[in-house]
Amino acid sequence: MEVLERNNQVQFQIETENAFEKLYERAFPLVAKFVSKMSGSFQDAKDIFHDALIIFYEKQVANAITIQVADELYILGIAKHLWLRKFKQAQEKVSLDQLERDISIPEDYYQESEENNRLLVLLQLTGRKCLELLRAVYYDKLGPSAIAAIFGYQTVRSATVQKYKCLEKVRDKVKEKSISYEDLLE
Amino acid sequence: MKTSWNNIRTTEQYLSGNMNTEETLLFKAKLLTDPVLRLQVALQEKTYQLVRLFARKEMKAKLEITYQQLFHNPEKQAFQQSILQYFIKP
Questions:
Q1: Is A24's CB within 8 Å of B70's CB?
Q2: Per residue in A94-105, pLDDT tens?
């Protein structure tokens, strides 16, 4: 039973990855065409496209895609918004149709902070396993039984316990390694 | 369940908006008077941010591998051309 579930999970992951690669091939040409029209480089196109795919994934996981449109067109819409966010002066060059206008981009997407990058490097050194578990829970939004299967916990309950242990561990590490608490309490 | 985990769970419900109005008001009142709780909430919020940052960086690295594979695969020339045509000036 346990083994079966694990196999299903692995099978599911392989299928998801294949689907993602197909989507990659379908959507990249559209984004490349758009970026070249904006006089962007190949590297710009690749960067924007990868970011757009990540945001698309986040929206899919959160069930936040309400517009009925082919996936690659949705990704193109995200890419246009990302381009506008990066190059504010491009405003009059980018035309968004009605559907595209309704697409939103996560506020924090381009807010890279040096402090967060520094903390993340430390966390990866000391507790990568916990980060991976927390990613599965909060980013991939997998349910407790999927988490138990992937991470090899015997029961759903021990997966939940592990989640809390990890949250506490990472949180305490963040506290220990933060430059100042004042920053956190802003 | 440990008390500290209960606190983590309550904070999670607050941060993710999974509290009813009454609970939210109560929690906010506690926040005003309890600096330790205030710090805990801030730290937990930061933790979620860092998990998201980690996940995005991991995804980016994975996409880079997909990119390398697709652009170095001779069977994918039609695909490569469909991208490169826009950037190669005659």
A1: yes
A2: 788 888 888 889
Domain boundaries, chain A: 2-101, 114-184
Asked if residues A83 and A38 have their Cβ atoms less than 8 Å apart, the reply is yes
User: What angle (nearest 5°) sits at the alpha carbon of residue B77, between those of residues B73 and B78?
Assistant: 140
What whole-number distance in Å separates Cα of residue B69 and Cα of residue B90? Answer: 27
B71 with B62: CB under 8 angstroms? no
Q: What is the ipTM of this complex?
A: 0.89
> Which pTM value belongs to this model?
0.89
A110 part of contact set with chain B, CB < 8 Å: no
Q: Per the CB < 8 Å rule, is A120 touching B44? A: no
Terminal C-alpha separation, chain A: 49
> CA-CA distance, A92 to B12, in Å (whole number)?
42
Q: How far is the C-alpha of B4 from the C-alpha of B7, rounded, in Å?
A: 5
Q: A105, A139, A141, A160: which to substitute to probe chain B, counting the most B Cβ within 10 Å?
A: A139
Q: How far apart are CA A121 and CA B24, in angstroms?
A: 34
